[in-house]
TrEMBL record:
It comes from the Eukaryota. This is Predicted protein. Signal peptide: none annotated. It comes from Laccaria bicolor (strain S238N-H82 / ATCC MYA-4686) (Bicoloured deceiver). Residues 81-130 form the F-box domain.
Amino acid sequence: MTHDETEKRVGEQELAAFQLHEELDERRDRNDGELESEFNLNLYGTSSKLTFRLVINHLAMWIYGQWRRSLPKTRVSHCDLRMICTMPLDILYEIFEHLHPIDLYHISRTNRSFQDILRSPSSSSIWRAAYEKEDEIPRCPEDISELEWADLLFGKRICQQCGNGGAPPNLTFRHRLCRKCARLCLVKQRDLVFPSSSIWSLVRRSQVINMCPDGTFDDDWPLYLKDESKRIDLRLSLTVDFADIKKVVEEHNKKRNLDIDSIRSHVLKTFRWAQRTAQAYQTQREVRYERNMRRVHARLVRSGHTLIDVQKAQFDEDVLDEIKDLKSSLPTRIWDYLKPQLEPAIHLARLTRLEKARKQLIRARISFIKDQYNQYKKDETHPSTWSYHPPLYTVCEFDMLRRLIEREGDELLSADDEGVKDAMRTLPGAVEEWTREKMRQLAGLLPGSRRVGADACDDLTGDAMSIDSPPREPDEPDLHLLNLATSVFTCLGSTISSIRAGRCLIGWDGAGPHLRCGALQTHWDKRLHFSRRGYEAAGALVELVGWDKGTATVGEMDGFDGRFVCGGCTSASAGEGGRKALTWRECVLHYMEKESDLARHSRPSWSLLTDEAKADVVRREEFDPYIKDKSWTCAHCSVHYLAPVDRKGAIDHCKSAHEIRRPIENLDYLYVITTERTPRRPAVFREIADCLCLRCPETGVTRLRTLGALVPHLRDAHQVEAPLVCRDWVQVRTILRSTMDLPQLQRAEGPLR
Ligand SMILES: [Zn+2]
Ligand SMILES: [Zn+2]
Ligand SMILES: [Zn+2]
Ligand SMILES: [Zn+2]
Ligand SMILES: [Zn+2]
């Protein structure tokens, strides 16, 4: 296809786009921003928008705009330029010498005569003069005409092959091809394989000026001419066979190398110029964008939107691009077109802002309620009840308080608020009601609480007797059941060892304070569960002591304070030198934790230690580390409400602040149960130590020794060389009885009270 044919085809196919472009130029000449924007608007509304955008040579437009702006403003409303066509050539030349290269290019496009004039070699002085005034713009290389060079730089981005848009000038190959056509004759670097790296210097490499509307460059373009790279390959294979030709080829290559170098350096120079120009273009575009956005914002605010919403709104990128390209103030027609596209984003920003503000308000109100609730607990309730109060999230759900928190309007809560005062007055009643409800729910889980039978209550698996389901019997569950030693609950959210304080919760004193466990706010049916294993373990312990598991209370078992060892564990399996001597509560937890070891712990089996063995164990027990927990408080005042202390701190406080000489635990000071508790380390039960020295004075401390340790003791401490049983020592029973014994044997000694 010849150049002329291409031109013709382009002219036909893209006539509309061309006309628009020309019209744009013309209007810019008139410096009529408003009209120009209106023109943009027309464009944006049509399907030719894309085509138009693809053919625009933004670089040329920018250079042209800069040039026009640098000229003094003339006010020629209209003049007849037809006489130009009949002017003598030398006068025309005189005029042309004062023009910008881009003007010359535009003139060449007006008709065939001008094109011929500007293409002829005799016009080269005109071009030279034009370029001299614009020393920034790269000069025409020798291998093409001035007009072709101007066309390459300033022409529309129209493909010389197919006439489509999106065809950037290729400086190396002096052509303009769209991506599709470029792929037909060019290849990417990765598709070329040369036997030697030096060959790369023998092939020409593309350099396109592919400037995007935002001033950036898209350089992802096939680089090498297919034909050229193929020829090089062939020539190389010849050199292997013919030594003479090799020499010729070397000469040729040398020359070619030089040629390519010269093209390359010119191409690079031109490309760098394009980059510099693009930079200025970008800067101006950004300045314009900021200015346009300020205008758009101001306009939006004037039409009733809040500035902050306008600023936060995430506008559609396409709309932003259109705003970027606006070159004037906002005429009504453009505004009417843009506004509906901007408003949804502002609307969304407004909703987000209001939602966020509402959440913040709710948080602030909850924080206020928290302070009020704390104040109430501190000032108006006894320290012994603190552990049993509902958690804040529950309190916020109480009707009166929830209404306060969710109240319409955006004012914060204040203590003077009548609504707040009313709600706080109802708080004690609501707390009591909540507590009773929780007690009812917990008692309802226990065996014997309902006539439907105990089996239905084994709901470690969940559903059988969920607190959410209405009771099957209208009868109130007996709240006294919560005092039973067998009333064992568990928090399924507190089963990992580090927070196992919630694993075994016995009676109301265990379960009540754990209702504040964070795990229950969202998980595990939001409640505690009855523990069948805990129930079985506790029942076996109660019966071992000789009591009725249907009536023995937590307090009674605590008071009995026996020491037990687990029959399922052997000395070897227990580790640490033997089985541990556990309190009854520790036994229940042990059996619950051994749920996975069913081989040894399929049913609870306990041995109860005798008084002597227990005394020996207790002698070796460390202090319960919970006395060091900072969870103690004075029972007479609320000084420790926000900052609980260790037990010694509480005792000292009682002595100094309340002049109590010997403060009593749970009367003058107490442990505030939380969901954490440092566990006690039990002492080991030494099964073979069952000998008691009769020579040691009665000091209230019982010490059991093995026979092996007893003999040296009698000799060293009491100078008894030949110890006699019953005179110097006795063997004592260490295990009083076991659940494994026959029932008659178990009952033989009767209940222990
Ligand atoms: Zn094409
Ligand atoms: Zn828990
Ligand atoms: Zn065990
Ligand atoms: Zn006090
Ligand atoms: Zn002794």
